[in-house]
Design goal:
This protein is an all-alpha fold and about 450 residues long. The protein has a domain of about 80 residues. Helices cover about 60% and strands about 0% of the residues. Helix 3 runs parallel beside helix 14. It starts with about 30 loop residues before the first helix and ends with a helix.
Amino acid sequence: MRKMDWKHLFNPNRIGVDYVKEIDLESTRSSFIKDYDRILFSAPFRKLQNKTQVFPLTDNIFVHNRLTHSLETASVGRTLGREVGILIADQYHSEDKVFQHFYRNELQHVISAACLSHDIGNPPFGHTGEVAISEYFRNLSGSLRSRITDHISDLQWAELCHFEGNANGFRILTHDFNNANGGEFKLTFSTLAAMVKYPCLADVGNDKSTGLISTKKYNILASEWSLWQQLSDGLALASTDIQNVYARHPFVYLVEAADDICYLIIDLEDAHRLKIISHQETVDHLLGLLDSFSKDASTSTIHNNLDKIVSPEQKVAYLRALVIHSAIKECVNTFMKHEKELLEGQLQEPLTNLFDSALNKKWRSLQSFSFKNIYGHSIVMEREMAGYKILQGLLEEFIEGLFLKNSMRSKQLSFLIPYTYKNIREEDNLYANLRAILDFISAMTDQEAIDLYRLLKGIQV
């Protein structure tokens, strides 16, 4: 495996653009800032405002959806990128002006943009949606199953049976929908690579036996594999000993850390707002984490400040801010401590798993508590079951309708699919038709999926 190098790990060239782009040291709006803006103003990003984070279909405006989660993750990611970038620039102070400029000024924008896009491929109802789509195909039987499996490859079947929001996100950001020549985004190599947590294909993904973090899931569909290879060559990324499996770009660990920090700490805050967990439990967990971090403020100071705050929600918000601040510092230190393994493509754990023993114990304790008391709460489970049924019902209608050929029902279903996904009419390409249906359904908001399900099932509102 070749070793990666910081000076090759940034590249302003864009997917779908032929000319070579150089970093402009005088520009006030760099290519990487433009990446952030292109994502922020896009339709797929706006749809995240009505996609589940943890608590589906909630009416509480203070509880996070995928859009608010992504914005907050981007904020944390920007700080992580800023802190790490300065340390890299200082450590390699003899490198040229372009190197210094990127790490001092631009890395923060790359990490922030990648964080902004990290959930853009999630279907309605969050991870439940991924499971619903995957299990629909895995549970197919009889003639319908054979009519699909007899006409697609094993790799394509693996993609259907393991629907992956990460891979769907990469597709959204790079795919030539309607021959758009690189898609509507045309993001830089650096930003795209920074959001690819699992740089492999579906047939080798979801395999933890390899010991590689890259194969925990998968991030690239076969239709976008050539684009990934273009990125990996442009950034001189390291491949592994397993065919079609690459080492992660080091920037990915910062994006992942921002996500890990936000979902763990802010999901706790959301559960507190919904009164799923008590105020005291929330405060105890946050104070426990603060006690394990390097001391930025004394315990007495924190308690004195807490005593001055009247609102329980504001008390939790105050502690949440302190924990996130401390977690960022810890992740920065951990990233630099493991620089050698990162550049060699050998780091097989997220940064938050590599905290020192006392902090790691507290962090994992909160994770266990959250899985049991938040993600496993009856409110969450009941609403997830509803989302599961809705997505399975939509797939049933559209997949079965695909084989009805020229029937009235097939024509009606095809009419419902927007022009963007009209390759559904490519009758000779079954997989393209199946993928178009998934593109359409996965792009829906939670409410769009509910409304369409009611329409197709004849349910009166």
